[in-house]
Please model this.
Amino acid sequence: MRLVTWLVLLHASDTGGSPLQERALEPDVSSPRAPSMQAPSTPPSDTSARGPFSVMYIAGALDVRGLATRPLGPIVAPSTPVLSTSTSAYAHRTSSRVAVVLQLASVGGHSPWTPREATLVTATGRHVRKFLIWQSRPLEAKDTDVTLVLETEAKSIELRGRYLLELREDATSPPLHLGPVSFPEL
Model:
């Protein structure tokens, strides 16, 4: 049975290199396997030989125009509940998608927090786009390193300008607004 590997693009906050780091989430293998005495059952060109960028390219999320990245300035206001002002954020764009990747830091004094809804909002309050959400784990009161990835489809000519990001735990919870958010051009 083939295991699925997920790609998460993260800000490499502790390195002097590229602002992106690929991290593959793979199962823990506690004991080494003996070398196989049989010929491989599949040719090297099948999907098991593809890396995360190959999968993104094949899916159309990445193309010859590549990936543009922009660090976002402080996007958390000092009075924001749940999130600390030390939360960092990066905006990304390919020719078919945009994403915001946040390294969440807790302000403390709250129950575990996970947004279930994320929407891009204009300065006039119009909701323009909903995001898919992935969070590494719920944000606890003392956490400083929880990753939140928000992404949606967008052509390279869409979603230009400055927006607010509205996060909610559910449809009835008060919104948490972050911003400004703007996406780089390709």
